[in-house]
Amino acid sequence: MEVTSSAHERLAERLVKIIVRLNAGERLSPKQLAQEFKTHPRTIQRDFERLEITELPIIRDEQTKKFYLNPIAMGNYGVRDMMNFAQLSGVQKLYPKLNVPFLRDLLDKGKPPIYSAKGYAFEDASLFEDHFKKFNEAIQQKKQIQFLYKDLIRNVKPYRVIHHHGNWYLAAVEQDDLKTYRLSRISNIGFPQNIIFEQDPEVLQRLEDEDSIWFGLEKMEVVLSVQPEVAMHFSQRALLPEQQVIKQLEDGGLLVSSQITHYQQILPLVRYWIPHVKIVNPVGLQGELEAELKCYLEI
Prior knowledge:
The protein is of the alpha+beta class. Helices cover 38% and strands 22% of the residues. A hairpin with a 2-residue loop joins strand 3 and strand 4 (152-164).
């Protein structure tokens, strides 16, 4: 049976009204819509099928049988989404609270600015736009990838893209070892054989548990003394990897411990705090550091 022009007009009117209401955040019941449009629920069901073909992010609630748009796809992000983004970005503790009143004040353009975060140095991530695109595809679809790194061709199973101390890294498994590769040194990324792999739950857990990018090495404890002049800074926040305050000394100084997997995690930090921080244990590491500095100063 040929569909009349009037029927086309009614269909177009229904679809437009449904889209407008979905975009407004409404959850729509086919049964109620059928009553409003004076048609059969199956007709409304076909309307939603037409909309799904257009790749609208429509979700059907299996309990209520109502249809709605995915809030994230619409660009409507809530407090939970912002908190997740803050956690992924490593700034969840930058502000005192991430609740509705605080976020409303923080993001209200009609009010004078109150907060400003400065002093952070990052790589220009726009330089790695192609890297991010390919790594996203590989990680989402669990594809093995190949790239050139330090003049060697690497075939790896990618798990996570990690930002650490201003630099971006790829965490991937190469020959059963979890390693990190700095994005700025990666080139010629490809999917040569379209190999699909299964993610290892143990690797995923290690990625969640580890705060650094030094995977595959056993952790060691470094004990340091902190002079009273800077003790407040170490008491207020952790300035060292997995820092713990062991003891407050009588002169106001501190004895602290740090768990590391590589000495390069701790030595640059100790150099920064010279002369107020010294390595107590492992015995000899402070001497090595001082010898290195003497060599640099040609003393």
